[in-house]
Amino acid sequence: MDGSGRRLAKARLPEGVAGMARLHAMIGERVGEDAEESLEQVVIGIETDRGPWVQALIAAGYRVYAVNPLQASRYRERHGVSGAKSDGADAHMLADMVRTDSHQLRPVAGDSAQAAAIKVVARAHKNMIWERTRHMQRLRHALRDYFPAALEAFEELTALDALELLAKAPDPASAAKLSLTQIRAALKRAGRRGDIDAKANKIQAALRVEHLAQPAVVAQAYAATVRAAVAVLGTLNEQIKTLQGQVEEHFGEPGLGPILGARVLAEFGDDQHRYASAKARKNYAGTSPITRASGKKEVVAARYVHNDRLVDALVSQVVPAMVVSPGVRALYDELRARDIDHFTACRHLANRLVGILHGCLKTRTLYNEKTAWSHRSPKPETSAAAA
Q1: 123 & 102 share domain
Q2: Of 26, 70, 207, 239, whose CA is between 20 and 30 Å from 182?
Q3: The Transposase IS110-like N-terminal domain covers which part of the protein (predicted)?
């Protein structure tokens, strides 16, 4: 499409090198031979910000804009209300969108290869944790249906001792026969600290409590599913630990901590020109509130369209930050004193910490507690002398 919106060419391109070569040829026919200067004037809209095609387009020198599918959907409604949709029409719409509204869009960030590597391992690590949570919830539901005593005995179903004992005795009858020696051995192999004997006695007592039971054949069927779930959870635990090592190896020792810091870097990227201001970074993070105002009515609400991975890491940062930062703790206590709930207070603090992070990155300085919270320090009292 040219600058006036007239379509110059249309084609369905295959995946891989052949498709990219065909795209370069189509563009080359229009821009001429003075490639380096002309290619900078070519803008491309695409509904993703990652993958080999995006990297190849950036490497070729084009200006690439990743258009959020929600933005594309809203833009489509500007030109038609029928609801019709096709790949060709979407391609035309994206080209028209970056032609007219590129000043409203954010170009794909030019992150380094190191940042891209961190993003791969950090996202894979978080995916494994989410997958483990899903399987743990399935296990919890199964135990509630036929073996509720296990839920009383094991506080954490993904712990090594719980998985070992459930694999050894996945039904009420066999669990009631577990000896203290077997339970103590499982606790020690899991690295439990404290009074092992007391913990073992508590688990054994919980497993032997009377409860409403399923017929024996049904209990055995459930036990088979529990053995499978326990095996999956054991494998996930191992892979999460392995990927955690990969995250720490790629990321090093940041102030946020090796895991949360890697996730924040992975989602923000390391392109120094991507965020023009602290507000832009907060908006991308999804921690800043949005205001809806019309006439005399004004509503301030949380952002519900955001990067889930980034928000999860930023909000998770708040609780450990309260332990080591007096400024974070003081602001949290102040918010709670105003009857603001815990999650809203954490989101507010996450928003503040994103602003501090942006300032550190912009000025290339390390975090300093006194500087970061100087605006909240009590001002010294002044005294006036009577004449």
Answers
A1: no
A2: 239
A3: 1-148
Q: Are residues 160 and 236 in the same domain?
A: yes
Q: Is the pLDDT of residue 249 over 90?
A: no
Token digits of residue 370: 């006194």
Q: Which amino acid is at 20?
A: M
CB 164 within 8 A of CB 224: no
Q: Identify the pLDDT of residue 37.
A: 57
Give pLDDT tens digits for 163-183. 999 999 999 999 999 999 999
Backbone φ and ψ of 113, nearest 5°:
-65, -35
Boundaries of domain holding 86: 16-108
Which residue has tokens 């003081």? Answer: 330
* Tally of domains within the chain: 3
Residue 386 pLDDT more than 50?
no
Residue 75 has pLDDT above 80, yes or no: yes
- Show Cβ contacts of residue 356 under 8 Å, excluding neighbours closer than 6 positions: 367, 372
Give the DSSP H/E element, type plus range, for residue 44: strand 43-46
Q: What's the CA angle centered on 57, arms 53 and 62, to 5 degrees?
A: 160
Q: Do 315 and 366 lie in a common domain?
A: yes
Instruction: Give the separation between CA 1 and CA 184, rounded to whole angstroms.
Output: 72
Cα angle: 178, vertex 184, 137; to 5 degrees = 70
- Where is the domain boundary, 81, 108, 135? 108
Residue 290 structure tokens: 């949005």
> Does residue 314 form part of some domain?
yes
Flag whether 1 is in a domain.
Answer: no
Look at residues 58, 90, 108 and tell me which one is the last residue of a structural domain: 108
Q: Indicate the SS3 state at residue 121.
A: helix
Could you tell me if residue 383 is inside a domain?
A: no
CB 336 within 8 A of CB 381: no
Minimal CA–CA distance to 163: which of 228, 213, 222?
228
Question: What CA dihedral angle connects 113, 119, 120 and 124, to 10 degrees?
Answer: 170
Query: CATH number, domain at 181?
Result: 1.10.287
Q: How far apart are CA 16 and CA 52, in angstroms?
A: 8
